[in-house]
User: Fold this.
Amino acid sequence: MVHIDFPGKGDQESLDEFEMLVDSAGAECCSIVVGTRQQPDARFFVGSGKADEIGDIVEAERIDLVIFNHSLSPSQERNLETKFNCRVLDRTGLILDIFSQRARSFEGKLQVELAQLEHLSTRLVRGWTHLERQKGGIGLRGPGETQLETDRRLLRARIKAIHKRLNKVRKQRDQGRKARRKAEVPTVSLVGYTNAGKSTLFNRMTTADVYAADQLFATLDPTLRRIDVSDVGPVVMADTVGFIRHLPHKLVESFRATLEESKEADLLLHVVDACSDERDDNMYHVQAVLKEIEADKIPALIVYNKIDLMGDFKPRIDYDDQGEPQAVWLSAQTGEGIALLLSVLQQRLGKRLVEGSIFLTTRMGQLRALLHQQGAVQQEGCDEQGNFLLSIRLPKKEFEQVLKKAGVTSDEILLKPVE
Assistant:
C-alpha cells in the first residue's frame, strides 16, 4: 500500500480509510509505504528513489499487487508496472474492484461493468503486435486495423449496449416513481458516507434483511421497502450506495439510475457516524456528491448514528430556532432513538395531513359515517339544527377519497385548519 502526503494541499486522502478499503477488497497487506512530496512525479507519481524503495519491497516480499491511495494516470500505471514487474492499482481501480464484488442484482452488475469499461478504455495497452497490419498474401490478409483499435471498437460497442440496457432500467424506475407520486406515497431515501450504518438503520426500521457489515460499500444495490408512519400512512424507504471522498466521477455517472432514488425522494435521511473523528469532513463529502447528482435542494434530516459507542449518551432530537427538527441522535444497532426518528418523520411528512374542524349539514351523514369509519374524528359536536362540527385528522389522500365516495366536493364543506 502506497500513501503520499502533499503538504499545503487540502482535502487529501485518508490513510485509515485506505486501509479499510483494502481490507474490504479482501487483500492481505504486506507493507505500507508512506512519503511526502510537494507535487506528483510525472513519470512514477512518487519520486524515483521512493519507486526504487517500493521495488525492493515487492521483490523481497514477492508481492503480487501494489495499490496507490491516489488516482494514477494511465502512463504512470504502465511505468510503475514495468518497474515493479507486478500489477499496480490506483484508488479508483480499488473502489471499482470492491463494487464488482458487492454487485448482486443484474442492474448493479451492469453499472459496475460500465464503470470498469470506461475506466479501462483509457488504459488499453498495445498488445498482439505480431498480428498488427499483417502483410498481404494468401491467408495473411489482416483486418486492416491494429489489435488496439479492435479492442477499442469492441469496448465502445459493449459500452453502448450497456447504456441501452441501463436506459431501460431507468425508465422502469421512473414508472415506479410516477406510480408512487400518483398514489401520493412519500419516499424517504437514506444517504450518507459509506459504513455510517445506513443498512443497519434500514433493517431496524423496515424489518428487512439487507446485508449489513462493518466494511466499506457493504450495500451496492438499492433496496426499497414500505413502512407505515402514524398519521402519514405508507412511506417508501430506500437504502442506497454509500458515498466516499473523491468518489470517481465515472462511478457517479454509471450509478445515476440508482442515485436517482435519492434525487426524487421527498426527504433525505443523512446518516452520519456520530463517533467518527472525521464526521464533519465526511458530511461535507456527502453534500458534494448530493450536489453532483442535483439532490442538494431536497429537504434533509441528519441522523447521528452509533451513539451506543459514545458512552452514556442519550438519544435526542435537535431543533432549530423555528422549532423544526434538524437532527436525531440514535443507535440503529440497539434501537435506541428509533421512536424519536419515527416521530420526526411523522412531523416532517405530516404536512400531507388534513387537520382541522369541518362543518357538516344534516344531509352529509354519509360523509360523517365514513370519517368515523376511517378513525379520523377526534371530537364531535352538533348545533340545535342537527348540523355537525367535527374535529378531524387524516391523510389528505384518504380525505379526498372519502369526499369522493360521499359525493361531496371540498367547496361544500367549511374546513378550518388547526392554528
Summary: The chain has a mean pLDDT of 81. The first strand starts at residue 2 and ends at 5. Residues 187 and 265 are 5 Å apart (CA to CA). The chain is about 40% helix and 20% strand.
